[in-house]
């Protein structure tokens, strides 16, 4: 493998159909496979999986004595936990976890088989997190999983396993945050300040949230390195999606984002592939990539495909001994809500350092897969309908608002559509023996067609009638379930 350089990047941009400006990039189309996929699996696995305490920001917070943990509320802070468990930070730094990250039980084929059974259509491992450790065979830094730790090309092995199961392979890059991620560690001269470890810890510049507004922040050397790393990822693994975390929103990234997108889209054109970029906030121009909301949803249909990324645990993306797991039935409800609004759900799991997937994560995935095996007809390959649904429950429109949503109720119904069939999912099955879909009433302003038949997905036909109140469906013979119940409503 030849090390990539800026001249090669410019050559691909200059000779391809996409140029590094928003007008040109807006002509890229969202892949049809992505619109049809609806459900993917995210994987946060790296050196931070070794301490397995707090969350994936352990690398940063182990150096911040006064830092309040972002998501966990454990009694002992990450800083104190590290001090008590591993010793002073200047004697045992984050770099010292790398030899302990052995991945001795990592079985990519077993992972792929699980994700396929869960119903995932695409799989996205973290290629590089904020900690600067690459999980792939990079020529740009020795701080990677091939030369250290597992001594395996984790991303390459996963790509082969995922594609063998006919799922699309994607990668995420969280590299941008490495500019400031270890700034707290600058107080520890023999660790983060040591130039021998600069390739891992990065510039360790002070974090200033105002950088996004005022344009201060990463210098040219860091930004060029960021561009080279992301383009190297593209060349090595030809991913179907490249996902970026939020800090590329920094204004100094703008010209580099355009260069990367032009390079990636042009390379995809050479391969004959359909690809996409995920972004948060307004990092990319509307219409040039796929909008992503971290731990949040939308309140209505978005005409352009969008995505929610969230995790099976409420408090962490990586494996942690104190993870607070979600109920799989609630995750299924969110999946339906997201799909009804023209979105996809990217659901994260956090393997242990040895490469095994925790029983809780596996159990959640299998439960979702079991539900999709019966009800996926109205999820996969569908589009949104005229309206997303009905009922009182609203989702947050911002990042990190999923915890603010009220529980779904018996009146919450969500719609999808495919080939003359309207799918209606009742998110909580009523106990009184009938479902009333008011959006399909005789005087509905949304519906002026003919209903030919109504069936319960996985069970068959059911009694129904149209009234001024709505489509009334007899549910008295449907067994009680904590999961949503889907109805296929055939129209003419």
CATH superfamily of the largest domain: Glycosidases
Determine Rg (CA atoms, Å): 24 Å
Question: How many helices?
Answer: 13
Number of strands: 17
Strand order of the largest sheet: 1-2-3-4-5-6-7-8
Strand content: 15-25%
Based on Cα principal axes, name the global outline.
Answer: globular
* Helical/strand content category: alpha/beta
Order of helices and strands: HHHEHHHEHEHHHEHEEEHEHEEEEEEEEE
Low-confidence stretches: none
Q: Please give the largest β-sheet.
A: 8 strands, parallel, barrel
- Please tell me the overall pLDDT: 96
CATH architecture of the largest domain: Alpha-Beta Barrel
End-to-end span in angstroms? Answer: 57 Å
Query: What fold name goes in the CATH topology slot of the largest domain?
Result: TIM Barrel
For the record, what CATH class of the largest domain applies?
Alpha Beta
What is the domain tally?
Answer: 2
Q: Name the helicity range.
A: 25-40%
Please outline what is shown here.
By secondary structure, the protein is an alpha/beta fold. The chain is 26% helix and 17% strand.
Topology (SSEs and partners):
Elements: H1 6-15, H2 22-25, H3 32-37, E1 39-43, H4 58-61, H5 78-86, H6 108-117, E2 122-128, H7 154-164, E3 168-173, H8 198-201, H9 211-214, H10 220-237, E4 241-244, H11 254-271, E5 276-279, E6 290-294, E7 306-311, H12 328-340, E8 343-349, H13 359-375, E9 389-390, E10 413-418, E11 421-426, E12 434-437, E13 451-456, E14 460-461, E15 464-466, E16 471-474, E17 485-491
Parallel strand pairs: 1-2, 1-8, 2-3, 3-4, 4-5, 5-6, 6-7, 7-8
Antiparallel strand pairs: 9-10, 10-11, 11-17, 12-16, 13-14, 13-17, 15-16
């Amino acid at each position: 493998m030849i090390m990539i350089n800026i001249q090669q990047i410019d050559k691909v941009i200059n000779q391809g159909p996409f140029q590094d400006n928003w007008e040109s990039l807006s002509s890229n189309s969202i892949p049809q496979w992505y619109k049809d996929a609806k459900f993917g699996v995210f994987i946060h696995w790296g050196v931070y999986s070794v301490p397995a305490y707090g969350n994936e920001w352990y690398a940063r917070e182990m150096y911040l004595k006064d830092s309040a943990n972002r998501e966990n509320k454990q009694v002992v802070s990450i800083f104190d936990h590290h001090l008590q468990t591993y010793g002073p930070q200047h004697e045992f730094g984050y770099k010292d976890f790398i030899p302990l990250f052995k991945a001795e039980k990592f079985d990519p084929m077993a992972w792929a088989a699980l994700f396929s059974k869960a119903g995932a259509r695409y799989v996205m491992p973290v290629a590089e997190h904020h900690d600067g450790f690459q999980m792939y065979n990079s020529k740009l830094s020795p701080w990677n999983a091939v030369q250290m730790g597992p001594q395996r090309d984790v991303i390459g092995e996963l790509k082969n396993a995922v594609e063998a199961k006919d799922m699309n392979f994607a990668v995420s890059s969280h590299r941008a945050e490495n500019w400031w991620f270890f700034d707290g560690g600058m107080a520890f001269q023999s660790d983060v300040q040591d130039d021998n470890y600069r390739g891992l810890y990065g510039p360790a510049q002070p974090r200033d949230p105002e950088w996004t507004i005022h344009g201060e922040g990463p210098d040219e050397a860091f930004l060029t390195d960021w561009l080279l790393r992301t383009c190297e990822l593209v060349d090595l693994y030809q991913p179907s999606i490249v996902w970026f975390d939020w800090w590329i929103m920094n204004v100094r990234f703008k010209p580099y984002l355009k260069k990367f997108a032009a390079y990636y889209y042009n390379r995809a054109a050479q391969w004959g592939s359909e690809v996409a970029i995920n972004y948060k906030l307004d990092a990319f121009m509307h219409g040039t990539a796929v909008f992503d909301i971290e731990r949040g949803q939308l309140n209505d249909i978005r005409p352009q495909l969008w995505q929610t990324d969230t995790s099976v645990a409420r408090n962490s993306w990586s494996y942690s001994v104190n993870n607070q797991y979600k109920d799989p039935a609630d995750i299924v409800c969110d999946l339906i809500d997201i799909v009804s609004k023209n979105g996809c759900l990217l659901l994260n799991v956090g393997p242990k350092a040895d490469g095994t997937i925790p029983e809780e994560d596996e159990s959640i995935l299998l439960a979702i897969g079991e539900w999709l095996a019966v009800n996926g007809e109205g999820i996969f390959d569908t589009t949104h309908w005229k309206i997303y649904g009905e009922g009182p429950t609203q989702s947050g429109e911002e990042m990190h608002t999923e915890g603010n949503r009220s529980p779904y109720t018996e009146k919450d119904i969500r719609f999808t559509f495919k080939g003359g069939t309207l799918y209606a999912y009742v998110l909580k099955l009523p106990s009184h023996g009938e479902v009333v879909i008011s959006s399909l009433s005789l005087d509905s302003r949304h519906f002026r067609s003919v209903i030919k038949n109504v069936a319960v997905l996985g069970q068959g036909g059911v009694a129904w009638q149209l009234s001024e109140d709505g489509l009334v469906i007899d549910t008295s013979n449907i067994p009680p379930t904590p999961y949503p119940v889907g109805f296929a409503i055939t129209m003419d």
